Amino acid sequence: MRQGNQPDEIFRAVHALAASAIGFGLFTIMSYDAQREEVERVYTNMPDVYPIGGRKKKRGTVWANQVLQDLKPFRAQTTQGIQEAFDDHAVMTSMGLGSILNIPIAYDGVCVGTMNMTHKEGWYTGRHEEMGVLIGAFLAPALIICNMMHADSATRL
């Protein structure tokens, strides 16, 4: 966080730590806009498939209530679990990804974004959730800044 080129430097550092401690095929970081009830991709390790700037509406879903409102990680260990929770399940499963772990990133009890990891079927465990919550906490300052910048630019429009 002390280095320049933020938030990219903190995103890359968290990416590297999550890769070695937890593991994944696909890794993304999303900022959360509570007013619009949508998430926006601010970091990805697969920009050709999941580009930065991609947005998803999350209003009223079970996933949104659990992750964005209740601040509880979401874990699906099978392709069926991914299919039940995500519209883009076919893209993930076509890449051989069959389990997912979504970590809510919060500050002062409010969700500011998510850290998302997808891997082969059966990969993620409760221990990975615990590690993800700890690792993901380093993203809070960067996501707060991202959200402030997005709110400021929306105000100017």
UniProtKB/TrEMBL annotation:
Gene3D superfamilies named among the record's database cross-references: 3.30.450.40
**Pfam short name (any one):** GAF_2
List UniProt keywords, sorted A-Z. Answer: Membrane, Transmembrane, Transmembrane helix
Any idea where the GAF domain is? Answer: 7-143
- The transmembrane residues are 12-32, 131-151
Source organism, top-level taxon: Bacteria
Q: What is this protein called?
A: GAF domain-containing protein
